[in-house]
Structures are given as structure tokens and as C-alpha cells.
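Student: Hello, beginner here. Can you help me understand the protein record under this note? Any guidance would be welcome.
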Amino acid sequence: MRWDHRPGAIRVGPGYSRPVSLIIEDLHKRFGNVVALDGLTFEVPTGQIFGFLGANGAGKTTTMRIAIGVLAADRGQVVWNGTDTRELPRNTWGYLPEERGLYPRMVVIDQLVFFAGLHGVPQDLARRDAMGWLHRLRVPELAERRAEELSKGNQQKIQLISAILHGPPVLLMDEPFTGLDPVNVAMLREAFLELRDEGRTLIFSTHQMETVEAMCESVAIVDRGRVVVGGPLREIKRATGRRMVHLSVDGDHRLAWLAGVPGARIVRPGIDRSEIELDEGMEPEALLAAAVAAGAQVTHFEVADVSLEQIFIDHVGRPLDEDLHLAEAGGPVAPGEDAA
């Protein structure tokens, strides 16, 4: 299907309650023999926070860099509000890269004013708004300090300010929560929600599934350069047809009694809470009755949708954060060595 990309054209995507303003269509990109993008296609509704999920190397950063014009696609296009992004001014975008992009020895306020000036913001206005955001993010004392003196979390706050000072309608953020403590994660999440409420469109990649579930109305999961599932998060969950129960008990968290309950199995065990999947025909009430009959002291029982993490595993075949953990012992032996 071809979309109408003429300026002013508005199209409502299937399942979306808002007009679609950003269209990524059939992107292809190779780096030598490596296929980074292989027909990547998805849509982002206007004024939403959109989760862009995939393992390392799936194509997320490449997609963002093509959108802002840093890279050129081999084929395909990115369209914003009916216009090919190659024809749009650079200040359409705010970009928060995963890697730090600050000048280490430059004073924070000076480089914020400098970056805003690259987008045509007058110095006095840039300085006023920069100081306002430093205050909002509770770090006004950083204004006269050099970037190299800041912690990772504070550098990330400064980079966020530099990405939004020129008032871009769309903000692209590559792993914005990496290296942040829970306090700073909560603060950035609050800032993102405020930007969304101002009417901006935010797209971010992350390994933090709980953050995506808490903030994003729509998502796209990408694997090996292709979208494997995408759309409104609520509809994606419902389309699985799977039912989950979150169960907490005092005492033995292994839930040995569950082996005698047909149609119920643990998909995510936990010390505090376990996630149990119910087969068709198995009612949650029957699971609760079985727990009570087994003498389990139930402290939490909740019927829930399937988790985004489980959806990711279903479509990609491995957890999103698999690359962040050690491989199992006894893996491949180095050439020339004998297995023990």
C-alpha cells in the first residue's frame, strides 16, 4: 500500500486514535555486507510517546540517524506530516544520542546556548530557557560547571536540554535512560510526559520494558532490520489472546503445588511475584482456589495482560536484555582447544 505523502495529508493508521504524523516506509540500509535495515516500516501517531524496541544491532540507531539526515537510506523514506524529511529543516528534530555528545571542557550554559544557536534561537532566549530547564531538572548549580565535571546522569540531563531548547515538534532519543539511577529515570520520565502534553511526538529506544509499558501508547519491535510487530500497545497485547496472573504468596515462592493444576504454568518466576499463564478454558478463579486448597498464603492475585517482555520474546525468540548477561557456561570452545 502507498500512503499519501502530499503536504497536509492526514491518515489515521489502523487502530490509532490520533492522526499518524511520522511514517517510516520501506527503509533499507547496508554497511558493506551487513544488512542494518531490511524494509523497515512503521508509523508513529502525532503527540504520542512511542517505544522503539530491539536488541543491540537491530537497526534502531540507524533508523534514527536516517530520520534526522545524518545517514542516507539506500532505499525508502521517512515522512513527517506529509513531507519527506530530506526536505525539512534540521530544527524539526531533537536528537538525544546514546553516546555523550557534550564538549568536555566547555561550561554547561555556554554550550546549551551554542547548541540552541545552531537552530536559530537568539542567545538571550536560549540562556533564559536553558536556566529554566536546569531549574526544572533540579540542577541549576551546573550552569557554570564544565561537562567533564558532571556525573553520567547529569550529563544526560544536559543533553536532553540541548535536544529540546529549540522547540522541535519531534524528539528522537536513543537509550535515554542508560546509566541513570532510579531518581533520574523518574525525573526524565516526568519530563517526557510534560513534553508529550505540550503536543510533541517522542520516540525512544530502551531496554527498560517497564518504562515502555508505563509511558508508551504505541510501540514497534524490530529484529534484524525489520519490524516484527507494531501498533497500539493495548491492541498488541489483546491480539495475543493470552491471559496472565500475577501471584504472590508468603513462604515457598517455588509454587510446587502448581504442577498439579492443569492449564496453568509459570512463565516468569520470582521471589516476590510470579507470572503465570492460563490456557484457554482455565479460569483465574480456579487457580486461586487451587492455591488456597494447597495452603498457600496468597498476598497478591491479579489478572493481567501478557507483559511486553513476553511479547518481545515471542516475536524475537530471546529477551531484549540477553546481550547484557553472561552466556551459559560450556559454550563454544575456541579453535584449536579441546573440550574439557
User: Anything to note?
Assistant: The first strand starts at residue 20 and ends at 31. The longest helix spans residues 182-197. Residues 243-305 form a domain with the Alpha-Beta Plaits fold (CATH 3.30.70).
